[in-house]
Amino acid sequence: MTTLKDKTESAAPQARVRRKSELPTAIGFIALGLALLVLAPAVLSDFRLALLGRFVCYAIVAVGIGLAWGRGGMLTLGQGVFFGLGAYVMAMHLKLADAGADGVPDFMKLYGSGEVPGWWEPFRSPIVTVVAIVAVPALVAFGLGAAIFRRRVRGAYFAILSQALAAAFAILLVGQQATIGGTNGLNGFKSFFGFNLYDPVNKRMLFYIASATLLLMVLVVWQLYRSRYGELLIAVRDQEERVRFLGYDPANVKIVAYVVAAAMAGIAGALFVPIVGIISPASVGVVPSIAFLIGVAIGGRSTLFGPVVGAIAVAWAQTSLSESFPSFWTYFQGAMFVLVVAFLPRGFAGVGALFNRRKETA
Amino acid sequence: MEALFGQLFAGLSLGSVLLLAALGLALTFGQMGVINMAHGEFMMAGAYTAFVVQGVIADAGIALVVSIPLGFGIGGLLGLLLELTLIHRMYNRPLDTLLVTWGVALILQQVARDVFGAPNVDVRSPSWLSGSVDLGVAEVPASRLFILVLSVVAVGGLALVLTKTPLGRRIRGVVQNRDLAETAGISTRGTDRLTFFIGSGLAGIAGVALTLLGSTGPTLGTNYIVDAFLVVVAGGIGQIKGTVIAAFGLGILQAAFEYSTTASIAKVAVFAVVVVFLQIRPQGIFSIRTRSLA
Question: Where exactly are the transmembrane stretches of this chain (chain B) (predicted)?
Answer without folding.
Answer: 50-82, 94-112, 145-162, 194-216, 228-253, 265-282
